[in-house]
Specification:
globular, about 180 residues, about 30% strand, alpha+beta
């Protein structure tokens, strides 16, 4: 079965488009500005565009340090953990597309960076995103407040899952998760 989404390093034209996306409150927290373009185009920040089967831009993702939300608890040496950030085009939010969208990003992240654990930070008001990630096996590990915005974020983690012959299995990761 062909992938519903294709993921590539972000092009300058698509990065420019992403910085024009506007979300309805309270999701406007995720609005970006033209000044963010430099970060999108810096390969060290690992930004990627997500295109649908027809090649239309539907979202983006990033991996590593730039996916972290300031104020979160991050240790200096966590090579086994891959932080991920995602953004779906405003016209597509709230339509039940999140699981397939994020699932494809996780597959890409696993195949590209080979982590043991995925981690994501999500604003506590963003029930849609929380539900999507929890449906994909992520578990809340803690919370923090981003002081500048006075917004609470949850940090969620999930051990990597590998698809093998159509079956999903957990990797042998010794890290224990809170339940």
């Amino acid at each position: 079965m062909a992938a519903e989404y294709n993921i590539f390093p972000v092009s300058e034209s698509n990065a420019r488009e992403i910085t024009t996306w506007r979300y309805n409150p309270p999701y406007d927290l995720y609005d970006l500005e033209p000044r963010h373009l430099t970060g999108f185009l810096n390969p060290d920040y690992r930004y990627h565009q997500v295109l649908n089967k027809n090649g239309r831009l539907v979202g983006y993702c990033c991996f590593g340090v730039d996916a972290r939300v300031p104020g979160g608890v991050y240790l200096k040496n966590e090579p086994e953990i891959l932080d991920i950030g995602v953004g779906l085009a405003p016209r597509l939010t709230g339509q039940g597309r999140g699981t397939a969208f994020v699932g494809e990003i996780l597959k890409f992240g696993f195949n590209t960076y080979h982590p043991d654990i995925f981690r994501v930070s999500i604003a506590s008001f963003n029930k849609r995103s929380l539900k999507t990630f929890q449906n994909l096996g992520f578990i809340i590990q803690g919370s923090f407040t981003r002081e500048f915005l006075n917004v609470e974020f949850f940090q969620l983690e999930r051990p990597v899952m590998e698809a093998e012959d159509g079956e999903t299995r957990k990797t042998s990761n010794p890290k224990l998760f809170k339940t």
